[in-house]
Design goal:
Layout: E1 7-11, E2 32-33, E3 46-51, H1 70-80, E4 87-90, H2 105-130, H3 140-145, E5 150-155, H4 157-169, E6 175-179
Parallel strand pairs: 1-4, 3-4, 3-5, 5-6
Antiparallel strand pairs: 1-2
Helix pairs in contact: 2-4
Length: 180
């Protein structure tokens, strides 16, 4: 069964930033979906931020603990076979879930254009301040110093978010990938 080796955190982080307001998701506490299985505070982890496409959500790539996506097994086996080291995979979302706005493509573009601000100011410090990563702290300087251990990728509208992350956050990430 998948999940023995990979640590994944599907962080629900809307543009409204409910986690920052102190309101917790009802998905297991702390704004996390999924579990921190395989996590050890005795080691440092690289972090891979993986953004879904438009009108998808944080479960698109990894699924849920009850119904994991095949990608969980692919990553697990790559780690088990020594092809990659253990990694924290963060699947954020910025989708507006309001049914009155969800069909508004221009709103989706606006959220995508602004996502990088929330990413570096809120999400990265929240994740890397909670879990043991290569960041020695959550200040901009500490996060920039650990950029060699952080990647960002996205599919479709997530690749647009990847482009803006590349454009505005190059100091925070070593690797970028986007596909459609």
């Amino acid at each position: 069964m998948g999940g023995k080796y990979i640590l994944f955190i599907a962080v629900v982080f809307s543009i409204i930033c409910t986690a920052c307001s102190g309101q917790k998701e009802k998905t297991g506490g702390g704004g996390e979906k999924g579990g921190a299985y395989g996590y050890s505070g005795d080691r440092k982890y690289n972090v891979f931020y993986l953004m879904h496409g438009g009108w998808s959500d944080e479960t698109t790539y990894l699924g849920t603990p009850e119904n994991p996506n095949v990608l969980v097994n692919v990553i697990d086996h790559a780690i088990q076979d020594g092809k990659m080291g253990p990694v924290i995979v963060v699947c954020p979302t910025y989708n507006n879930e309001n049914p009155d706005d969800s069909a508004d493509y221009s709103l989706a573009l606006q959220l995508t254009d602004n996502y990088h601000n929330e990413l570096v100011n809120d999400l990265i410090p929240a994740v890397e301040g909670t879990y043991r990563t290569y960041a020695e702290g959550t200040s901009a300087q500490a996060l920039e110093a650990s950029r060699d251990h952080r990647a960002f990728a996205g599919f479709s509208m997530g690749s647009v978010a990847t482009w803006h992350t590349f454009q505005y956050c190059l100091d925070y990430f070593l690797v970028f990938a986007g596909w459609h």
